[in-house]
Inverse folding.
């Protein structure tokens, strides 16, 4: 995003507009944090701004400032699509291809509003007039901070915005331990704390409020953990029955795949979760070093993401999906063993 882009965006935002802010389907901490942070800034400028999420999101994010204003397309299809169609500006945050919004793909494709993308994933589609795309960034929330800085708007950054942005940076960096965490990331976190983000309370709200059933589900996941030492890989499975028996709620499996990755000498980890409602197996992939799960997911599981964190899906059974995963590992033997 160059100086000319920033000047044009400033001009666009100079007078009140109708603005839709869109995260990806199954929004996580970075998607919800970045959209809320941007929303709270735009409302200060008297814009008619609204976040429209494709579907619901985890309960551990529902304490965030203004979270109750988020509209859900899945349950409010008519009104949300009318808003998108009438919007002057459409911000898309934490994704870079319309298909990542699921059933919102069509309305976004046909919308006439000026598109502004803020995202840190690889290989963006070319749909936005203004693209702030940087794969080196830790999170979209960090990018929103830089975006406000470019707009000379950091004076608008208050405790509520700081809290939202802190959540996205914290969750997308694995509490600041992933390689994408830079000294600049920490400087931004310090700035957010100075603005009023309570780091201890935020961490407690996101990570330290667990239900008994979620702990039981984690135990089930760990009992299903399988290790493939010859490939330096490990994987976890969760069937629909196991989810149902343990009263699964959206977000309950967040972070489970990292337990597999934490095993000694493991370079690649996966979790396969059966979703019979959608007729798919949801896949989350994690890796260490330079091994790209983004490439693996794009090639084999209709997904993508980052070098060390990606997602995908499979339209076959849980068993056949796992078999496919195991069968492709010899193809990556050299890369896995080099790590």
């Amino acid at each position: 995003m160059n100086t000319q882009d920033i000047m044009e965006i400033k001009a666009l935002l100079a007078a009140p507009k109708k603005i839709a802010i869109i995260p990806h389907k199954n929004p996580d901490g970075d998607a919800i944090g970045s959209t809320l942070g941007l929303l709270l800034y735009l409302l200060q400028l008297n814009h008619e701004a609204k976040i429209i999420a494709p579907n619901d999101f985890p309960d551990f994010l529902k304490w965030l400032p203004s979270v109750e204003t988020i509209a859900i397309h899945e349950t409010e299809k008519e009104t949300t699509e009318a808003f998108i169609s009438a919007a002057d500006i459409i911000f898309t945050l934490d994704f870079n291809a319309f298909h990542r919004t699921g059933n919102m793909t069509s309305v976004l494709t046909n919308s006439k509003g000026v598109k502004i993308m803020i995202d840190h994933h690889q290989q963006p589609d070319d749909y936005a007039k203004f693209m702030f795309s940087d794969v080196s960034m830790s999170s979209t929330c960090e990018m929103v901070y830089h975006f406000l800085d470019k707009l000379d708007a950091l004076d608008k950054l208050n405790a509520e915005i700081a809290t939202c942005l802190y959540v996205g940076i914290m969750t997308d960096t694995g509490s600041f331990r992933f390689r994408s965490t830079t000294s600049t990331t920490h400087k931004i976190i310090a700035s957010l704390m100075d603005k009023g983000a309570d780091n201890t309370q935020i961490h407690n709200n996101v990570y330290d409020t667990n239900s008994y059933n979620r702990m039981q589900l984690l135990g089930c996941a760990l009992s299903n953990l399988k290790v493939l030492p010859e490939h330096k890989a490990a994987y976890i499975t969760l069937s629909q029955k196991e989810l149902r028996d343990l009263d699964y709620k959206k977000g309950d499996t967040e972070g489970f795949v990292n337990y597999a990755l934490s095993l000694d000498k493991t370079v690649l980890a996966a979790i396969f979760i059966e979703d019979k409602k959608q007729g798919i197996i949801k896949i989350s992939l994690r890796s260490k070093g330079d091994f790209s799960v983004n490439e693996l997911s794009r090639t084999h599981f209709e997904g993508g993401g980052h070098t060390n964190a990606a997602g995908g899906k499979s339209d076959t059974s849980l068993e056949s999906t796992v078999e496919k995963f195991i069968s492709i590992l010899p193809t990556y033997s050299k890369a896995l063993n080099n790590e």
